[in-house]
Every structure is written in C-alpha cells, then in structure tokens.
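Predict the holo structure. Ligand: 2'-O-acetyl adenosine-5-diphosphoribose.
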Amino acid sequence: MNTIELENITKAKSFLKSAQRVFVLTGAGVSAESGVPTFRGGGGAPVWRGMPFEQLSSAQMVEKDLPLVWEWFDYRRGLVCKCEPNAAHKTLAKVQQSGWFAEFSLVTQNIDGLHQTAGADDVIELHGSLWQARCLSCKTKQNLRDIPEDERPPVCPECLDSMRPDVILFGEAMPMQAVYQAQEKAENCDVCFVIGTSSLVYPAAGLPLIAKQNGAKIIEINPEETLLSTQADFSLRGKAAEILPLIFAEENPPNLRLPDDKIVKSAANQNRNEKRIEDRENSSTSENPLQNDQQLKSNFMTSETHPLRVSFLKSEEFPVLNKLGLTFAPGKKQRGALSLFIRLLLD
Ligand code: OAD
C-alpha cells in the first residue's frame, strides 16, 4: 500500500470520527475476493450454454422458458454456495453489529446473500436475492432453502401457480420499496461508502449522488476508476477485503447520539417514502426495459466526456424515474435530455 492510500485510510477514519449515519452501497466487487465473478471487467461478459447473461436473465426468458431460467439461477446459486464471505463482508457486518454509529445502512446490488451470511442484518437488496422465489401470480415469496431442489419451477404455497427467482431481470421494473428505502438512507447519511461497483447501473448508481447533494462525504473503494470517481471525496484504489479491515481496525468510532433535528428529518422522509410507494401502487405500472450490458457499455464508451462532470440527475428526479420503473445507465446526451425532460415535468 502506497503513501497516498495510507493517507486516504487516515482521512476515511477522520470522516468517520464525527459521523453518525453511515451508508454503504456495494456491488459485485465486494464479493470478488470470495470467488463470485463480477459482471464487468476481468475479460468478457458471462455466458452460459452459449447464451449471454442478459438473455438468460431476462423477463422474456421467464415467459418463454421458465425451467431454463430456474436451471440458470440454480447453477449460479450452486456457485455461490461454495463461496464464503470475505473480510469485506465480515468487516461491514461487524461494524453494523457493533453499534458504533447511530445508523449503519447496507445497500447492495448483489443477489448472492454473502452480506447476510457474514452476519449483516436489514440488508437492502436492490436487485433481489438468489435465495428467494416469488409467485408469478400472487407475488408470495418463499425462501429457496425451504423448497426441495427438484421442485422446479416451485409451486406457490398460496395460489399453486409457478414461482420464479425473486431477482430483477432485464426488462423489469425495480422493487420500489427497496429503492425508496435506500434513497431515504442515502439522503440522511453523513458518510457514504461506495464499494466494488462500476457505478453504471441506475438507480443504484444515483444513490451516492443523492448522498452528496445532501452534504455527505463520499468514499469509493475500487481498484479501478469508475464514473463515480470524480464525484467522490476520494477513492481508495484497492481490494475491498484488504481496505475495509484497515479503515475499521482499532480505535473504534464512538457511538454518537443523533441530534433531534436529524430524527425529525428522518421521520418526515419516512412519511414521504410511504406516500411515494402508495402513489406508485395506485398508478398503472408501465414496465420499461432495463438496458442490457451491451447498451450500458456502449453508452459508457460513446460518452465523449465524463457524463457525471457534465450533468447528473437531481435527487428529486429519481422518484420520477422510479415511477417509470426505469433502471438505466445513460450516456451524456441521454442523461442531459432526460434530466431536462424530468425537470420540465417537475416544474
Ligand atoms: P460490475 O461488474 O459492473 O463492477 C464491479 C466493480 O467491482 C468494478 O468496478 C471493479 O473494478 C470492482 N472490483 C473488482 N474487484 C474488486 C475488489 N476486490 N474490491 C473492490 N472492488 C472490486 O458490478 P456492479 O457494479 O455490481 O444487475 O453491477 C451492477 C449490476 O449490473 C449488477 O447488480 C447486475 C448487472 O447488470 C442485475 O443483474 C440487475
């Protein structure tokens, strides 16, 4: 570890000394040291039986060939079963349990369940879970550990229709409850860690921007530069499993009480989020296609300059995107146009 990284670790610790609410967003990179492959980087997109990831993990495939979708997710679960939580998962779980901070929120894009295996609670899973099935009709959820492996597709215990993996697939709307919960946590944090994500997929990629707009310090942990890097207060260039234990090593930050005004603000946000969910449920859902990785990549590549430097969506625009059920990773032009369009709508 070089001097800059050591200085940045000291800086991270100093931010944490006065922090009361800490928000952590993780992506595939946090599980890389456990042996779970990331989506981008490391040579080529995942392919199984000659089919690309975005075709297998798509809403169309659920309609066309549900047993194949189950086979694919059972295969992925089989791989994850062999993986153990690494030092990054364990450190985050330890800090959460320690009560060092008034609030320590853990939001993940991962579906592998390794944060929970490491002992973390109340993990907000933005993209669902490999360990859960959901009924196609009545949406009842069931833990896959309670369903025999040869029952595929599993039968819903409530309405007897087929169940599907409870994960977000390409071409589907986001789970709004999880998104709003995560936004509320991001709005109210003092320090936001962004760990092991390429920051390409929205709405997850927008959460640190919401935190920043509300005054939080942003610390990125990633061996590579990402779209977020220029927005972060600083980036720690290295592996999460090596860096996190150093940040949260010895002298534990004190468990500070929240000032009353923050508690009031948080309660107001909670009410607002409940209202948003209610509105969303009452409105007709239009499902917009989730962009596939190829599009994400080309949007990224074709941006002439860094999209985040030019214009990024404002936090009040995210609910509008969410209402449209939109998960996306826009390039500079789309981002600017969308932002303008939504601002006009909001005005
Ligand atoms: P990506 O695969 O896009 O990015 C992984 C990031 O982790 C990269 O920026 C790597 O540089 C970084 N990384 C690799 N090893 C690391 C390590 N040891 N420590 C820290 N960082 C490391 O994964 P996500 O950003 O999570 O969505 O991808 C977001 C979403 O795209 C996924 O949840 C998935 C995919 O489409 C769905 O399936 C809906």
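The first strand starts at residue 21 and ends at 26. Confidence is low (pLDDT under 50) at residues 254-266, 280-316, 321-333.
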